[in-house]
Design goal:
Shape: globular
Strand order of the largest sheet: 1-2-4-5-6-3
Number of strands: 8
Order of helices and strands: HHEEHEEEEEE
Structural class: alpha+beta
């Protein structure tokens, strides 16, 4: 279950505020348009993505290639961890285990992946996600081990420092 977050901007973690700001601005990573994936919702420790696989993603057996589901599940697992990040932190998936329960076809659309954080440590985070089709059927699950690391303190241009030392979207 996702944690409840006060909507006071000073209390919202940087990662969650950044993801919400990007979504509000209509910005997404390039893979999102390539794979027909969209961020739907973010809350602390939770990320929801929706995908619309079509025949472009079919394998030779007439169903959506498993990598499509894995990509959507990875986005949900990583996005959930991203909501906990402080300024100057980034993440990378170290391990993703996917279990497929049901095949996906074009009629499965839209499919929804909901990721949630299990724990976030100083260097490692654990998360999981579920992939549900348009009929409400469970199609796949995933668990992820995610490395959290520091990046140079060079914030993007749309971040400004406040008196308290934290930074917020502008």
């Amino acid at each position: 279950m996702a944690e409840t977050v006060s909507e006071s901007p000073a209390e919202i973690p940087y990662g969650l505020a950044r993801l919400r700001a990007l979504k509000k601005a209509g910005k997404a990573s390039p893979i999102s348009s390539t794979m027909s994936i969209e961020a739907v919702d973010y809350d602390l420790g939770r990320a929801v993505f929706e995908g619309r696989p079509d025949k472009r993603f079919y394998n030779p057996f007439g169903s959506v290639q498993g990598g499509y589901a894995a990509t959507l599940l990875d986005a949900a697992c990583g996005g959930a961890v991203h909501t906990h990040l402080a300024i100057g932190q980034a993440y990378a998936t170290l391990e993703l285990k996917v279990s497929y329960q049901r095949r996906l076809v074009e009629a499965s659309s839209p499919i929804r992946a909901e990721g949630r954080v299990l724990s976030v440590g100083r260097r490692i985070a654990f998360s999981e996600a579920r992939l549900i089709d348009a009929q409400g059927q469970l199609c796949a699950t995933a668990s992820a081990t995610i490395m959290v690391f520091h990046v140079p303190d060079n914030p993007p241009a749309n971040i400004e420092a406040t008196k308290e030392g934290s930074r917020h979207e502008v």
